[in-house]
Design goal:
By secondary structure, the chain is α+β, with helices and mostly antiparallel strands. The chain is built from ten helices and 34 strands. Strands 1, 2, 3, 7, 8, 9, 10, 11, 14, 17 and 18 form an eleven-stranded mixed β-sheet that branches. The protein is elongated, with a radius of gyration of 33 Å.
């Protein structure tokens, strides 16, 4: 046993000596960690080996590039520009894509200490991205190259176009600055390329274009249009060619010019409970919406500058989208698969957002209504002393009574109802708005009663709204108030009252009649007349949400 053990030891020492001289051992790779910036996302402390490009360990950062690594089969999947999935078997040094186009990876994936590592430069070539290495800062950036920019004059103003090699991870933002005047567009996930071609002759207020790397962590490239006078600017939309290259567009107008325009219509989400269409346009020129049972019709302020983004009917209430012309305007008709309801709201960095939801009978969704009894507490509202009435009429008390009556009708019909106040307390206007916005109300109805400086000088019904999404609600409430109360009508009006200006859902403020008009004051004293007001508001809400089953059972 001793002799055999000694012989084995001798052999091992001999082989070790040979390997140290004639066959040197391969040194273990040196691992470090870096901050990896992938488009617009940042991944700290990612393991890296500084060789072949460098090598980066597989991890969450791959999903930011649309990559999926199948460890068991050693297959890399990635999204092609047309939305399909391509696969590469990377275990073979001559790895090629399993589609018609070959995508060789010169440096195959390596397994080091049980982990897989990719060569970043190979991946960037595969995806047409740019890798920027800042080794002294332990920073590696992967971005979408900006290829160029140009400007052209159009009837609506001046259109600036900027091209990138691949689709951006999210929409750019557009802003204007002053002293000096300029407009800019920030491109998330983008970096400058050596071949970036930016420049333009003076055109209107624009004296030139320039581009720079606004931020490295995360990647943001900024294109600036220098101007010699104040301007306004908006994001118009995008075009994408079959290879995946994108062109984003920014519209610039002189500040004093107010020309209506419409950019692009795109479907941003679609599921069984909700669909959203985004219409890029100015807040100053809103579309007009009409809910017509089996379709939603939008009258656009101008013909779109870009064709709609590709639309494929999928799950959800939308079945079709069609355009037609109406002189300088355009009509957008959204065909519905099932009874649905749509409303518009404006969002600063998106434009006009059309949200479409199935009606209660189709989706099972219970509508949430916020009823706002005007005034309260230290704020009595209007006060009248009609000669035929013993006690003064106080608006805050009458609106609370009507609100309770309306809530009873809504609750009985299956709605969820929340009052902004349930007693004679003072609730600030911002708190009323915050309540409705925070609970995601489907509609907001503020109940008021009018007065006139000269008692008896004015009578009748008025309803107010602010945003285009609220116009239909205001009209249905007004129509039902006129039909039920039998008083004169003063119209549906646009006003910037706080509670209907800052609420996110369709909102209306009602002034059913004048409490300092002798005839209407006498009516308001009667509880049955106040019940009629509640009934009319209830009918209007039913009509607005187009719930036939409930409308048949509504109370008179």
């Amino acid at each position: 046993m001793v002799r055999r053990g000694g012989l084995l030891l001798f052999i091992l020492l001999f082989l070790n000596a040979r390997s140290s001289s004639a066959f040197p051992l391969v040194a273990e790779p040196t691992f470090e960690t870096v901050t990896l910036v992938v488009l617009h996302q940042v991944f700290p402390k990612v393991p890296v080996v500084w060789e072949e490009g460098p090598l980066i360990r597989t991890g969450d950062w791959m999903s930011a590039l649309g990559l999926h690594w199948d460890d068991a089969n050693e297959v890399l999947s990635f999204l092609s520009p047309n939305g399909g999935t391509e696969k590469v078997n990377v275990a073979d040094p001559s790895a090629v894509c399993e589609t018609e186009d070959d995508h060789p990876l010169p440096n195959p994936v390596r397994k080091i200490n049980g982990d897989w590592f990719f060569c970043l430069k190979d991946l960037s070539g595969l995806l047409e991205l740019k890798v920027l290495i800042h080794r002294e800062e332990s920073l590696i950036r992967i971005g979408i190259p900006v290829q160029g920019a140009q400007i052209q004059a159009i009837a609506e103003g001046y259109l600036v176009e900027v091209q990138v090699s691949r689709p951006l991870p999210q929409s750019p933002t557009v802003r204007t600055l002053f002293d000096p005047s300029r407009a800019y567009i920030d491109l998330p996930g983008a970096v400058l390329a050596s071949e970036t071609n930016v420049g333009a002759e003076a055109m209107g207020p624009v004296t030139g274009l320039r581009i720079g790397q606004f931020r490295n962590v995360p990647n943001i490239a900024r294109l600036v249009a220098d101007c010699d006078r104040p301007v306004k600017a908006w994001l118009v939309g995008r075009k994408t060619d079959p290879s995946g290259k994108q062109t984003w567009m920014m519209l610039i107008q002189e500040e004093q010019k107010k020309s209506p325009w419409m950019g692009q219509v795109s479907l941003e989400s679609a599921n069984p409970t909700q669909c959203q269409l985004v219409l890029t346009a100015s807040e100053d020129f809103p579309p007009i919406i009409e809910n017509k049972g089996k379709e939603i019709v939008l009258t656009l302020p101008a013909r779109p500058l870009l064709p709609p983004s590709p639309f494929q009917p999928s799950e959800g209430p939308i079945g079709s989208i069609k355009f037609s012309s109406d002189g300088p305007k355009a009509i957008l008709v959204v065909g519905l698969r099932q009874p649905s309801w749509g409303f518009l709201r404006f969002e600063k960095d998106r434009g006009w957002v059309l949200t479409i939801e199935p009606l209660k009978g189709a989706s099972g969704k219970v509508r949430l209504i916020v009823v706002d009894p005007g005034h309260g507490g230290k704020d009595p509202g209007a006060i009248a002393h009609p000669p035929t009435v013993r006690s003064p009429l106080v608006e805050k008390s009458l609106t609370l009574d009507i609100a309770f009556r309306l809530k009873a009708l809504l609750d009985k019909a299956g709605f969820r109802t929340v009052l902004t106040r349930t007693q004679d307390t003072y609730v600030p206007l911002p708190d009323r708005v915050a309540l409705a916005n925070s609970i995601g109300a489907d509609a907001f109805v503020s109940i008021h009663l009018n007065s006139y400086p000269t008692p008896g000088g004015k009578s009748g019904t008025e309803v107010y709204y602010w945003s285009p999404q609220s116009r239909s609600l205001a009209e249905t409430l007004y129509r039902n108030l006129l039909a039920t109360l039998g008083r004169g009508g003063n119209g549906v009006r646009v006003r910037q009252f706080y509670v209907i200006h800052h609420t996110k859902m369709p909102s209306a403020l009602t002034e059913s009649c004048y409490l300092n008009h002798p005839e209407e004051a006498a009516l308001l004293v009667d509880p049955q007349f106040r019940q009629k007001i509640a009934n009319a508001l209830f009918k209007g809400i039913l009509e607005f949400f187009q719930v036939p089953a409930l409308m048949e059972k509504r109370q008179d």
